[in-house]
Amino acid sequence: MKMQIHLREAREADLTELGELKFRASVAWGDFVEELQNLPDARQVSQEHLPHIIVAELEGTIAGFVTILPGDDASQAELEDLFVAPSLWRNGVGAQLLAAAEARAVVLGAARMHVVANERARLFYEAAGYRLIGMVQTDFASAPELAKSLRPVQ
């Protein structure tokens, strides 16, 4: 039975809950837990990002969220965050959020989506059509940099 996920725009009242979900999802694999516990940003979602966040709800509870930011040029969007409550991993929440993010990016005029992902999420993105374009150094480790063409360039 498919879960009934409701997608909506983020609200200011969501920020604390989104930050906590971000932290829970970030430490769920057990990687860099101590570093994340000492990083204030690990539990925060920027209020400046609020207009760019889509929230997934399941039965009135936040199940995940995605943040889509304009890229360095108008033809590209940046997938800044995609977090799902660990108890809901592998249930389609992330795929629905990713599809919504891509649709939003196209509406905003982007022809390509860019993301720097956790290595553990690489297969998720590749299954959705993203291709590895390089590796970048993050605060904690080297991470895959991926991109996807969202529509043919006209």
TrEMBL record:
Record InterPro entries: Acyl_CoA_acyltransferase, Bact_Acetyltransf, GNAT_dom
PROSITE patterns, A to Z: GNAT
Domain N-acetyltransferase positions: 5-151
UniProt KW keywords: Acyltransferase, Transferase
Keyword rRNA-binding listed: no
A GO term, aspect molecular function: acyltransferase activity, transferring groups other than amino-acyl groups
Listed Pfam families: Acetyltransf_1
Protein name according to UniProt: N-acetylglutamate synthase-like GNAT family acetyltransferase
Organism: Rhizobium lusitanum
Taxonomic classification: Bacteria, Pseudomonadati, Pseudomonadota, Alphaproteobacteria, Hyphomicrobiales
